[in-house]
Amino acid sequence: MALYMKAAEILEKVEQKKGAVKTLVYDSKFQNIKQLFALVCETQKYSSILQEIINSTKLLKETKLRIHLAKVLVYDLLIGRGVKCGGAWKTTMLKHRSRLESALARIKIKKKVSRNQDLLPSGSQQTQGNIIPRYVRVNSLKTTLDDVIDYLKREGFSYQGTTMRLEDLDHLSGKTFLCDLHLKDLLVFSSKTDFHNHFLYKAGHIILQDKASCLPAFLLNPPVGSHVIDACAAPGNKTSHLAAIMKNKGKLFAFDLDAKRLSTMSTLLLRAGVTCHQLANQDFLKVDPLSSEYKEVKYILLDPSCSGSGMVCLRDEVSEPQKDGRLQALAAFQLHCLKHALQFPQVQRVVYSTCSVHTQENEEVVSACLQHNPGFRLVHLLPNWHERGHDPLTQCLRASTAKTRTHGFFVAMLERRPLQTDGQNLPMITTLPVGGEEKQDTPQSSPSDEERETSQTANELPANPSSKKRRNRKKHKKQEP
Ligand SMILES: C[S@@+](CC[C@H](N)C(=O)[O-])C[C@H]1O[C@@H](n2cnc3c(N)ncnc32)[C@H](O)[C@@H]1O
Q1: Residue of 46, 248, 311, 398 with fewest CB within 10 Å of its CB?
Q2: List 313, 355, 369, 396, catalytic entry
Q3: Does the annotation mark 355 as catalytic?
Q4: Secondary structure of 2-61 in the HEC alphabet?
Q5: What is annotated as the active site (predicted)?
Q6: Which residues contribute to the annotated binding site for S-adenosyl-L-methionine?
Q7: Which atom of ligand 1 sits closest to the CA of residue 236?
């Protein structure tokens, strides 16, 4: 019984995007982790089919079961190993068994398939999910990249140097690992590698974070000692990344509406050795930009609630009209947050990110915001990143399993235009190409605002401070036996 209750609890959190399956399962302290993990994953995979069965048999009304528990029990009864617990739930499920079986059979007939697995959407998500590698961010507040690499080598892992091509990631297997091409503190392992029980993870030396989710803090790149806001911060992976970049110096104001998520975040930040933060259980939209507390805030990371449609394991379970309404509401909220972020008087750069693949939550939000804020423009991010924002917002980045071996993601960086001496905003900005020296300011001819906002040659990401070190590492690698 405990297994089903725990699985239902985790499934609910996953569907509410409150965490990743693996993390929630491991944090649950459940005795049989493997069994729990398998049950949650499988139920989640069949979630929309289970929902259909439950709806058509009116199971919730008949049994008073809650939806997530019903899904788990129906999964095990019809597709899994049969309901194994004793007691009331088993009796209930057996009572409704034939109706449930008939509902499943009807769906199979309708879809013209004979096997349960053929009911799953044909392949793409599942296959893609299998090829997202395991990304591990080294927490520089607690350790160094070299120390982690050495530690892992002593444990029998084999370090293969820096990734050169996307395809390198598909050949990772067993205990081999690589250093990521774009993010110097990111290591890449085969998707099957599990660090949840590893000392380095438990001690906060490594953070298990998808590469795409590491982009926002990396791109914002707040200087050591700066004042930064993480507007929608929990559970705090990006907050701890920002703190690491700031070397725990300066001020990191982190807000979140959800008290429970904030409390988890507090524990995670403690484990990660973050000390420069100030957590507030507050609606970011109600934070006063003119408060003296935030007068030095120049950098804001905004990663608001979104549809989560980029998360490979999350499925869209709502119908199209519902989805439309939900997307509209989310986009309106996201736009509101982004506009609010630009109200902070000293803010220079705002990174906006979502784990959504919908243009409505991404490019459309950014375009609408820029239309209302001509004093800001887009920064052309990572020129060597191939998956760009949808035309014309090609300065922004997109990520996907197929093109970047990550979850689906979107990142934009808005930058305040420099002021002319007469107080007007200048259409020119500093160009800092990746891995290069700072170039002189490049005045642009004066195209229309819209053209400037979408110009690809405008400005680029601050140089990756690690590039020199990386070259050394590669050299070093070549000397290794
Ligand atoms: C996508 S999650 C943030 C993930 C987080 N940035 C990380 O990397 O760990 C969005 C968060 O926004 C919070 N949120 C939603 N509306 C908010 C608001 N008005 N003000 C502050 N936080 C909000 C949610 O509670 C949720 O924790």
Answers
A1: 248
A2: 355
A3: yes
A4: HHHHHHHHHHHHHHCCCCCHHHHHHHCCCCCHHHHHHHHHHHHHCHHHHHHHHHHHCHHH
A5: 355
A6: 232-238, 256, 283, 303
A7: 9
Query: What residue spans of 117-232 are helical by DSSP H?
Result: 124-130, 145-154, 199-202, 211-220
pLDDT tens track, the chain, 481 positions: 788 999 999 999 888 877 777 778 877 878 787 788 888 888 988 888 999 999 999 999 999 899 999 999 999 999 888 887 768 888 888 999 999 999 999 998 988 888 887 887 654 344 444 578 999 999 999 999 999 999 999 999 999 999 888 888 888 888 999 999 999 999 999 988 989 999 999 999 999 999 999 999 999 999 999 999 999 999 999 999 999 999 999 999 999 999 999 999 999 999 999 999 999 999 999 999 999 999 999 999 999 999 888 887 654 444 454 567 889 999 999 999 999 999 999 999 999 999 999 999 999 999 999 999 999 999 999 999 999 999 999 999 999 988 999 999 999 999 999 876 666 665 433 333 333 223 322 222 222 222 222 222 222 222 233 333 443 343 333 322 2
